[in-house]
Amino acid sequence: MYKKLKYQIYLLLDPAQEDRRWEKIIDYLLETLIFLNIIAVIIETVDAIYNSYKLYFNVFEKISVYIFTLEYLLRLWVCTNEVKYSAPVLGRIKYIFSLSALVDLLAIMPFYLPFTNIDLRIVRILRLFRFLRIFKLGRYLNATKLIASVFKSKKEELILFLLITISLIIVASSFVYFAENQAQPDKYSSIPATMWWCVTTLTTVGYGDIFPITPIGKILTAVIAILGLGMFALPAGILASGFSDEFQKRRQHKEKNICPHCGKEIE
Amino acid sequence: MYKKLKYQIYLLLDPAQEDRRWEKIIDYLLETLIFLNIIAVIIETVDAIYNSYKLYFNVFEKISVYIFTLEYLLRLWVCTNEVKYSAPVLGRIKYIFSLSALVDLLAIMPFYLPFTNIDLRIVRILRLFRFLRIFKLGRYLNATKLIASVFKSKKEELILFLLITISLIIVASSFVYFAENQAQPDKYSSIPATMWWCVTTLTTVGYGDIFPITPIGKILTAVIAILGLGMFALPAGILASGFSDEFQKRRQHKEKNICPHCGKEIE
Amino acid sequence: MYKKLKYQIYLLLDPAQEDRRWEKIIDYLLETLIFLNIIAVIIETVDAIYNSYKLYFNVFEKISVYIFTLEYLLRLWVCTNEVKYSAPVLGRIKYIFSLSALVDLLAIMPFYLPFTNIDLRIVRILRLFRFLRIFKLGRYLNATKLIASVFKSKKEELILFLLITISLIIVASSFVYFAENQAQPDKYSSIPATMWWCVTTLTTVGYGDIFPITPIGKILTAVIAILGLGMFALPAGILASGFSDEFQKRRQHKEKNICPHCGKEIE
Amino acid sequence: MYKKLKYQIYLLLDPAQEDRRWEKIIDYLLETLIFLNIIAVIIETVDAIYNSYKLYFNVFEKISVYIFTLEYLLRLWVCTNEVKYSAPVLGRIKYIFSLSALVDLLAIMPFYLPFTNIDLRIVRILRLFRFLRIFKLGRYLNATKLIASVFKSKKEELILFLLITISLIIVASSFVYFAENQAQPDKYSSIPATMWWCVTTLTTVGYGDIFPITPIGKILTAVIAILGLGMFALPAGILASGFSDEFQKRRQHKEKNICPHCGKEIE
Question: pTM of this prediction?
Fold first, then answer.
């Protein structure tokens, strides 16, 4: 009976992949609680709201933590039902150090460590990562898989794009630093400071907190900004061809390829 | 005769899909009136112009509303010619609550409710939505259908893109808030305030009203902004492959691939 | 002999499509003169440079205008060699009102109208359009044709994109105007003023001269800016599929299509 | 024995294309030293850090230069092993003036020319170009080749894009200059100054240091900014189709399309 209960709880906590009613309800409740926790973390930072509803926020946080703690302990108990955590002690230790369990633990720990004087509120936002499980479920699964496989198949090109971007930032920042440092020693104070400017320019954010004033600096900036257009174009082009590839592959899987010579199907 | 008149008016008010002269003229006149109304709403807000030509604006508005009211009542009268509104009473009630009729009503109602003390001028801009009917007609119909079907076929990927964007905004805002709040408590005053900054950065608008000044905040921003490049690339890639798909489909429909020499079809 | 000279001059002035040495030299000289004129117009506006080298600029301008005037008159004389301008009088009048001749005339006229007290210097920049002939020649002809045919084949989609953009700007500006006008009456003073803000936001330029401060204005802006991402993606997607189409078409022209049934080539 | 040593050193210094252990170790050591040098150049410019660790930076620089000098001399000695530099004297002179050797020389020379009173620190950043050799090696070779071949095959279109961009900048700057010069003579002081504004607008950087205030200037800017959207789209579209082409070519090379049932090739 103990084993059966354990297995029942295991099924309840597992993401609802099959159409089991109770699994789904528990899953939706937990997702909703996580969602509300994220909203709470966000609006708690608005002082006016927090000061008015301090009590409610604290009560909600307390209840949430108790539920998440219960969930964590239950998961730790029943995790041995999974093959990779099946060893009673070692399996559970392995589970504790799995990514999803660590995120779960980090999200509840700050509550039990009130004596720490550093601000651990940020940790609660980690619950967002739990919320991201939604991508794995239901209707977005196909789209998630598609985007993931596009990124995967074009990984090397995208990493190369990042390397090129970083190289360009270093070179451009060095040149603009030597061009602008004399004219604006407080703004272009060092190459790292210039790199900040370079990123905001190359990505075309352009806050306007720091911009070149010397002719040579402006010409370099113009070149960098137009290169920036190309930078935009590169990942767009890579991903566009990646999506085309992926869609084509899927269509080809659907359409049956029949050899015109012998009439048999080819996989 | 009553029925015939009713049917005649119904044909006149219906979008000119066939080459009937009077339908077209009425349609063009109404479109022009709507267009002029939009222009009027826009330039009325320029105080210098409004104060000089107040009388003309008011007269024009009065005439417009009378015409739109007449049109609304006529449409309400003749709508029973359409199959789905054919029931004399229920059909008309159904018509009143149809989207296009509601927009029509909302656009004229403010005029008849002068005793309301809230500003209802914005409602008149709703006439723009009537103007959007132009997309359904004539030469842009093909392009509209194309873009609509691309968005439809890639709907899931685009929604997923939005979900990823929103998740990124929440996570990034939380981290930057904890990094910058101490240094700039008036600007990064809360996570919602930081989310405003995050949107303007991720979309590379970068007004410059709020930007990070701490090293950790700047590094996080650099990462976010470069991720922003990828964000741009994602919908561009999705839509590009969507358009390619759609064009290919259309071509395949057209071409039957018949050999001009032997007349047989080629796959 | 008169006719032969006229034909010779006609050949000389005609864009060097064949490998005739003199044609090419004249063409290069004229292109260079136009290029130098553009540079002169640009750097003349720098007061420090203009005041130091006033004399040189004026002499250069005088010589340029004399040469362009001579060229204009010669072209007017020999234009009858072209079929469409072959009528001695009517053909020349037709030529005068052709676009390229009008640009040529506008570029020299300000010089002969010194008594006009309005600033006609801008007109000289029109010579740039003459310079654009370079796109028609030599090595970039293929690329120019390609880009032109892509824009042509996707014309409807791009116009529709513009219509959507304009509609979005009108609707967004109206809503943000009513949201921000009370809070910043000097900046969001009217819908046209808000449209200026809207364009700089939607295109992600974001100068920072005008930005929303009310919560509702900020939320609307966030929505607009994220829609702006989609706006970017739309023409990119359209053009990407357009280029793919065009390249595929060209490749198919090259590869000979042979019917598998009768072995004959299909065009 | 001398020849053998020379050949051994040549192999050691050559980028590790084969799996030779010592080559690889030397290569990694040199890459690491270059990487550390780049980091040093960057953080040396932060005065606070430089002043605290001046001694360490100088010692590190000295050691680096000695190693790079040794490497340079060794390379100069053994370069005759390569076919194109095989002539003992002329080959070495030819090697000295090769791009990679010049970069190597420029990166160490400033150290031996301390009597120069101009700032030669920037030259040290040239070592970055040496670091770029990483793109030629190992895992990113494929992606580098791919991106390079895409840029190569679409070179003409990209150059044309640049020509169009430059033309647009010149025309737009001239018009906006004449529109804004009267209203803001200090900001839109000349066409070159306006070109700076135009580049930051067209690339959507929009620092906000300079923006139009006249109605005509704002309308022109709106047109330019929306054209800017198209500018973005053009290279994205070109590169997207370029990547698609390239991937398709590669796939066609791989697949020989043989029917698994009858063994015949299918076109």
Answer: 0.85
